[in-house]
Amino acid sequence: QVQLVESGGGSVQAGGSLRLSCKAFGIIFRNNAFGWYRQTPGNQREFLASITIGGNKRYADSVSGRFSISRDNTENTVYLQMNNLKPEDTANYYCAAARIISLLGNSETRGRGTQVTVSS
Questions:
Q1: pLDDT digits over 48-82, tens only?
Q2: CA nearest to 17, candidates 78, 80, 85
Q3: Quick check: helix, strand or coil at residue 103?
């Protein structure tokens, strides 16, 4: 059974840091690209970062320089290090997987998410 499970969310003050984890089950981890997204109630999903099979990374302008994506193929886990958090970063964060990076945005392989709340 394919499953992505996020963890590491929580409540922090502005300027703080969190590291999110996304552990994959039931897929060949090294053969997949991964991405992190976030969503708040009533708003569209927002792309944050992606990492290809080969380790190439891409970031949204809103998080570039503050967030960093990485992957550990031995642990079947993708990480999102988030620094200098702002109140507008408050959202539910989830990861997605796809065999082809261009299909990541429409992938049905995604987790339920972990909530991040940043207070001012």
A1: 999 999 999 999 999 999 999 999 999 999 999 99
A2: 85
A3: helix
